[in-house]
Amino acid sequence: MSSPPAPQNPERRLPGGPVLQDSVTEAIAAAFFEELAQVGYAKLSLEAVARRAGAGKAAIYRRWPSKLAMTIALISQVVSSAVGISDSGTLRGDVLAFVTDAAAALRHRLPARIAPDLLAESTRNPELAQALLAAVRDPRRARAVGMLERAIERGELPADVDRELALDLLAGPLYWRLAVVHAPTAPDYLDRLTDKILAAIIA
């Protein structure tokens, strides 16, 4: 997991506030992900993130009002940019691109540690759970529904396809194998998984 790409303008100003240097924002974001992967959300402190970034704690508060706000902003930004929804012209091509991108993200050392921790913590922290659902899960699932709707328009899926179950099938098996049981995968695993997902959705 990497921090968001740097904008061309190296500085920005909050309305009525100070100039925020993008280089500092990037350093804080990188430090946040490293710290989150190392200690988990429950033990994450803004002081530790600031020390790792070589910045003051005030620099964090000028950008995000709380640990929760920083977590949701940075996680949602990276998730939305790292795993897109392809429009290849076929449902199989779209599903294969979906699982390929998701697998690449889950195999990265930071998401591999961060995602399970956030999911576990969300079972104990309702505020975090609701924020993650609204900022990460719901927009992601909405884009995946668009993929299914395009397949319906092309005649690849029936109009009454179970969309909720299809979304579960797209994400569940791959996450279980890579993030939960950490099982190895053969070179053709994603192709075979794609075919099984398609068969299950169409059945």
Layout of secondary structure:
Elements: E1 11-13, E2 19-21, H1 22-39, H2 46-53, H3 57-61, H4 67-82, H5 91-107, H6 109-122, H7 126-153, H8 163-180, H9 189-202
Antiparallel strand pairs: 1-2
Protein architecture, described:
Helix 1 (about 20-40) packs across helix 2, helix 1 crosses helix 6 and helix 8 (about 165-180) runs antiparallel to helix 9 (about 190-200). This protein has helices spanning about 20-40, 45-55, 55-60, 65-80, 90-105, 110-120, 125-155, 165-180, 190-200, and strands spanning about 10-15, 20. Mean pLDDT is about 85; it is low at about 1-10. It is mainly alpha-helical. A two-stranded antiparallel ribbon has the order 1-2. The longest helix has 28 residues, at about 125-155.
Average of per-residue pLDDT values: 87
Distance between the termini: 35 Å
The major pleated sheet works out as: 2 strands, antiparallel
What is the 3D form?
Answer: elongated
